[in-house]
Amino acid sequence: xxxxxxxxxxxxxxxxxxxxxxxxxxxxxxxxxxxxxxxxxxxxxxxxxxxxxxxxxxxxxxxxxxxxxxxxxxxxxxxxxxxxxxxxxxxxxxxxxxxxxxxxxxxxxxxxxxxxxxxxxxxxxxxxxxxxxxxxxxxxxxxxxxxxxxxxxxxxxxxxxxxxxxxxxxxxxxxxxxxxxxxxxxxxxxxxxxxxxxxxxxxxxxxxxxxxxxxxxxxxxxxxxxxxxxxxxxxxxxxxxxxxxxxxxxxxxxxxxxxxxxxxxxxxxxxxxxxxxxxxxxxxxxxxxxxxxxxxxxxxxxxxxxxxxxxxxxxxxxxxxxxxxxxxxxxxxxxxxxxxxxxxxxxxxxxxxxxxxxxxxxxxxxxxxxxxxxxxxxxxxxxxxxxxxxxxxxxxxxxxxxxxxxxxxxxxxxxxxxxxxxxxxxxxxxxxxxxxxxxxxxxxxxxxxxxxxxxxxxxxxxxxxxxxxxxxxxxxxxxxxxxxxxxxxxxxxxxxxxxxxxxxxxxxxxxxxxxxxxxxxxxxxxxxxxxxxxxxxxxxxxxxxxxxxxxxxxxxxxxxxxxxxxxxxxxxxxxxxxxxxxxxxxx
Length: 587
Hints:
Radius of gyration: 24 Å
Largest sheet: none
Distance between the termini: 60 Å
Number of helices: 22
Shape: globular
Order of helices and strands: HHHHHHHHHHHHHHHHHHHHHH
Structural class: mainly alpha
Number of strands: 0
């Protein structure tokens, strides 16, 4: 096949109107879903968990929708277009992470919790400070993730409008932030889930269309596709070999290992993923949801690899980088080329369709993230830690329940199990009938107000991060989740001696180092693509802190438990063990 000449990368100005119309359709449809869902219920269970009546297939699509974010559709393909083999490794890390979720947390979290990660911890560690720590970490993780999605939105709409101006990206970020606030405050989890289902279907369908067109373009010859990609990458054969981005030095290779560790372990600690397991009625449904998500996510990433190679082969790495320095617009540009090129009706239509799907992707994910962070603030920090829970939820020795549970006994006498379950349900906020309806309404109101505040903070942070690759930004979110949330979750589920002090130390022992190391890394200062390119105060050499902060999170939890003045309560761990494994007493 004759070498292709990279075409122009901006759509013709006469056709901008079509893409804008499709964007408007996406916004109107998602708003329609939001108002429809918002009328169906306003109780806490509806707002946080969508009424728990979604099927495994529906929740599997919603899970994949939450996971297949702008980082997947825009960032991963862009990294492959720019760095070839090293970019492919991103997609592998994202996919392998789901095996950890399936094997370790899906069913157990669904059985042991109610709305959030802190609910799982509170079942055996009934302390306000534990809820506060877990809730705060969840807010930080979701903020990192939110910034990535909104940066992707700015890049996409700027390209759509045929401009690379900072003003266009800024107004796009503000608009997306406003929309996500509307989705959450009005529709809650039910609206967010249906938006994710629709978005996941469109995203996978759009990827299939592009992949088929790409395969037809190269007559099914994958080897030729790879040769063309290497030829137009500017790096030759090195594009198809490891090391183009992470193989230049020992530091860069260590950085890649740190990134991979964060990607594989971080998914099991992402608040918006964990909250998805509460939207189905049973633990079995949660596991089946995860299996559906693995299939959908795996198929998508295979297509993302092909699309990244196709962007390099048909456009060229230099042109992709010229359109967006981080490569975030590679897929829409590829759609323009596959549809017929710049100026053709087919090219602009396909470009507009793919851009609209990417925009829907961003809107759906930011809604899910905002909901998770507002739930963490209202349910864990405000209601659980600051205001306090109903009687029986507080720490102290007097809150012990289930005294018939000793050691590792797997069977609990019914008369005693009922007392333990009642105490456990109070600890997690379960049993809404026992709580005043007014208190529940107040909590939902606080969650809606928190969504506004968190949205505003995310907008401000996104304005400073517009030049960073969205997949890389998500990698930072994964690092914080793996450092702060995963250690405390695994310790709580599987370590009998784990204490409240260990939980608090584990959360802060992973969260604080992760944030500090990112602050003093090349991500923030010292390079041309840093948040503050004109300054240099970095001393940590790696871009991803996972290799340091994740072990610190586990170590802090271990030390905190060993030095705790109050030993672990075996009764409460037995309650958690029975409930997590059998579902007895689960909401």
